[in-house]
Amino acid sequence: FGPKFSNIVFTEGAPGTGKTLGVLPIVLDILQDYLKGKIWIANNTKRNADKLASDLGRTDQSKTFSSEELIQFISNYQSPDRDGETLKYERDKHYTVTPENNVEAAINIKTISDIPSIIVIDEVSRLTDIELDIIDKFAKQHGITVLTFGDLNQIKSSGSLEIPIDGFNAENKI
Fold first, then answer.
1. Which residue has the higher pLDDT, 73 or 27?
2. Contacts of 54 (CB under 8 A, 6+ apart)
3. C-alpha 100 chain-centroid distance
4. How far apart are CA 24 and CA 156, in angstroms?
5. Max alpha carbon distance in the chain (Å)?
6. What is the pLDDT of residues 74-119, one digit of tens each?
7. CB of 41 closer than 8 Å to CB of 65
8. Between 174 and which of 26, 67, 94, 157 could a Cys-Cys bridge form, CB atoms 3.0 to 4.6 Å apart?
9. Closest alpha carbon to 163 in 97, 77, 116, 118
10. Where would I find the H helices in 37-110?
């Protein structure tokens, strides 16, 4: 189970294969006519996002975030408490379950006037499905495409999460 991401494009590959600094610049060049507004760039840290914007030569049209800052900027999401390495999700506070048994983030998207043309997220494997659902909801609401890059075998979120659903706990390693 999990949310479906209709506005997110995933680019996954082995380390050092040129996903971020090879493929991304080509995609941005192709989309140049579409990129009338800003580009939001997120990475695991704001410093890494700033470096990526610089490496892409797009510091003048970019707003940069850590992934956590991006989620806080676009929504009212509250990160779940931790018990050691386990994230403790609470139904209706962090997630809801749809009639189709999909898990969705239980959040409100903030009203933001200066939205980007595109959102780029590097090291996407550090985000949980619920965090990706928040970004996808924002993107759908504003007609934004999200380009993500990462290697699922290189860098991962650490720990696990528990989501209690109808009398049982769904546990996922992150």
1. 73
2. none
3. 23
4. 21
5. 51
6. 999 988 887 777 778 888 888 888 888 777 888 899 999 889 989 9
7. yes
8. 157
9. 97
10. 46-55, 67-74
Whole-number Cα distances in Å, 136 to 14, 40, 121, 146: 24, 14, 12, 8
Task: Give the list of residues 6+ apart from residue 94 with CB closer than 8 angstroms, or none.
Answer: 77, 78, 80, 105, 106, 130
Looking at every residue in the chain, the average pLDDT score rounds to: 81
101 contact partners, CB below 8 Å, separation of at least 6: 1
Phi, psi of 88 (to 5 degrees): -100, 100
End-to-end CA distance of the chain: 15
Q: Is 167 left (phi over 0), alpha (psi -120 to 50) or beta?
A: left
Residue 46 to residues 19, 27, 42, 116, Cα–Cα distance (Å): 19, 22, 7, 17
Name residue, tokens 């998207």: 109
Measured CA angle at 156 (ends 150, 161), to 5 deg: 130
Q: How many residues does the chain have?
A: 174
CA separation for the pair 87, 162 (Å, rounded) = 6
Distance CA(109)–CA(138), nearest Å, equals 6
